[in-house]
Amino acid sequence: METRRKIQWGEGALLGLTGLFLCLLLGLFLRDRRAMEVPAFVETERTVPLEAVRPDPSPVNLNTATAEELTALPGIGEELARRIVAYREENGPFGSEEDLTKVSGIGQGKLAALEGWITVEDTE
Hints:
Blueprint: H1 2-36, H2 50-53, E1 60-61, H3 67-70, H4 78-91, H5 108-113, E2 118-119
Parallel strand pairs: 1-2
């Protein structure tokens, strides 16, 4: 009987220690979780002056620009710049900015995005 009581007391003590340990773990979990919560904030857009993006804000002349200069334009990659130069070499200088839409890969939307960035001046 005495042995049975000691076993029950040992089981009770072990169960109590286990409960205490679990409470301690729960407290640590809740503390760490609270520390991980970051206050919500909204990042706003910043207005960057054109000079910071492109130091020379003067428009690029489609009739004299190299493929490298054309890639500095928004939405114009290396391949499209090569097509513009090839079109100009095959068909002569551009008569107007709208003539740029004759180049494969340039539509009205891309032309509108280039407004103010491009010009067509005489090459003479």
